[in-house]
Amino acid sequence: MDASRMSAAIRYRVFKRIAITVFAFATAAGIAFAFFRIAPENHIQRITETVKGWETSFKSTPKLSKCRGFHDANKIWKESQLKRQRLRDDKFTIAMQTYRRPKELNETLNGLLLEKIPSLSEVVVVWNDLEATPPEGYTSKHGVPVRFRQSPVNSLNQKLWPDPAYQTQAIFLSDDDIFYKPRDLEFVFQTWRKFGRRRMTGGFARCTIEEANHEYKYSFCSTDDAHNNYNMILSGLSFAHISFLDYYSSNDALATKIRAYVDQHFNCEDIAMNYLVSMLTGEGPLLVKGKDPYVMLSPPSGISTKPGHFEARTQCLNDFNKLFGCMPLIEETGHMEHGVILS
């Protein structure tokens, strides 16, 4: 009996210690969880979960492109993707087109290179002035090389030429009179890496309106939250994968016709890029806003300042629809914004 009582007492003390230990761990875990819920990391967790949900929603949005049968185009594009895998995807290149606007060009370059952009590999200024020698290249104070590339012709297609010297998969297509602030440009690049590789990704959204006669009208986009759709991101402020430039500059019949149209009308290469990207991927563009508004210098001269600009762009839309035999642009509503906690 004494042995039995002693054994029972030992079991009781062991059980008591285990119970106390479990209770202590449970209490500590509860306190830790409570602190986690109010800690800053909780906001990060919420952002992550929201972004994942947004990504799923964005990817599952029904696509409305009616374009089919571009087998040769898709073959060229897929071959380019394989070929370009050797290029870096953790850095990006800026391709900035300019024509006789030295003041705006210098201000844009200075604004971009004022601060360090961690992922910026190179700036290539596409020099379209055939009568003036471009400046010598240089290296910024943060070690970014700036290269001036003389165009063989004054063509809007030159910015979309896949320069063999490019070392990155991501090409940031830019005009000389508009730019993101440096910290915002880095954010846009990282957003492109995660969400935008198959899209035109940037800050310059435009829309189309289908009219009663089934023709389309070029338009600014609504700022009304109930009508916040868009279907183009213009190449004056946009990331594009280099494989899209490969296709745009290829000998494919459709790409050749598009480039000829752009040269003939000296307009609409940015619309054409949106058509081609959505045709190839079946996906719409991605609008990304910086923490600060992008800087628009509004120079006194330029294609967009000419009378009849919107009418000419509308004509491009309908001419492209005939060339493509369809309307490939796809409506999107989702966007990303630097410094905003999604909820």
UniProtKB/TrEMBL annotation:
Any Gene Ontology CC annotation: membrane
Compartment(s) of residence: Membrane
Residues in Glycosyl transferase domain copies: 92-337
GO molecular function: glycosyltransferase activity
Keyword hit for Disulfide bond: yes
One protein family per Pfam: Glyco_transf_64
InterPro entries per record: Exostosin, GT64_dom, Nucleotide-diphossugar_trans
Keywords from the UniProt entry: Disulfide bond, Membrane, Transferase
Key word Cytoplasm present: no
PANTHER family tied to this protein: ACETYLGLUCOSAMINYLTRANSFERASE
Protein name in UniProt: Glycosyl transferase 64 domain-containing protein
Organism: Claviceps pazoutovae
